[in-house]
Design brief:
Blueprint: E1 4-8, H1 14-21, E2 30-33, H2 35-41, H3 43-51, E3 56-62, H4 66-77, E4 83-87, H5 92-102, E5 111-115, H6 123-129, H7 136-149, E6 154-156, H8 159-169, E7 174-177, H9 196-202, E8 206-209, H10 211-214, H11 219-230
Parallel strand pairs: 1-2, 1-8, 2-3, 3-4, 4-5, 5-6, 6-7, 7-8
Length: 232
């Protein structure tokens, strides 16, 4: 499994997305399509970006009863994305149903990863509002183990938790980590952040980078810097 940089294309329209992607004349970056863009443009945006030769992480974070998730994943598997995700909080049964739904007749399927705890959820909020009494680290590791048991390929976690997840679930269990910023860049509204070089050191398999690339003066140069620091 090679390391890669995934660009979060958090745009509100196809027009803005393609204006951004058109800047890349040599590379075909791995891109993340999230809720905003998918809800604005629907499945056609996925097909169009795929047709241009990009790998796609479809970030819709499914969380529902197992049967609904299974049927929804069966629909998403037809879009030929490379990676998609769900919430680990939906239980092992839901995650198993998701794998079943995502697996095509020929046995192939996109990579499937689970969100453990959102990077916006602090330990205090998790305990006071969600009534989860364990520490956030123990919860993340437990959710990751549940995802592995259900047959998933990995989890989304902050880079700071990637090492713990690898220790608990093995080095081949994928960690996809947002919250990456350049050492000399703005942190924005992310709290648990690290640099591409540090994420590489910690053991992230994929880093998801948004504004440090999409809002850069020269997005292509920022992307290349990211790849250089993370992949080498």
């Amino acid at each position: 499994m090679g390391k890669d940089v995934i660009i979060a294309c958090d745009f509100s329209s196809a027009e803005a997305t393609f204006a951004f992607l058109d800047k890349f004349t040599e590379e075909k970056p791995f891109v993340k399509i999230g809720m905003e863009l998918y809800y604005a443009e629907g499945p056609s945006i996925v097909k169009e970006i795929k047709k241009r030769g990009h790998k796609i992480f479809l970030d819709l974070k499914l969380h529902d009863i197992p049967n609904t998730v299974k049927k929804s994943m069966a629909v998403l598997s037809k879009l030929d994305v490379d990676m998609t995700n769900l919430h680990a909080a939906g239980t092992i049964d839901m995650m198993k149903a998701a794998v079943e739904g995502l697996t095509r007749e020929d046995g192939t399927r996109p990579l499937l990863i689970a969100v453990t705890q959102l990077t916006s959820t602090s330990e205090e909020r998790m305990q006071n509002e969600l009534l989860i009494n364990s520490s956030i680290n123990d919860t993340i590791v437990k959710y990751a183990k549940n995802a592995k048991e259900a047959g998933l390929d990995g989890v989304v976690c902050s880079p700071l938790e990637a090492g713990m997840v690898k220790d608990a679930c093995g080095s081949s269990f994928m960690t996809v980590t947002p919250g990456v910023r350049f050492a000399d860049g703005e942190v924005g509204d992310q709290v648990r952040v690290t640099t591409p070089a540090k994420a590489k050191e910690i053991g992230s398999d994929y880093i998801v980078v948004g504004r440090p690339i999409t809002a850069a003066e020269d997005p292509v140069a920022a992307y290349r810097r990211c790849v250089e620091e993370f992949v080498g």
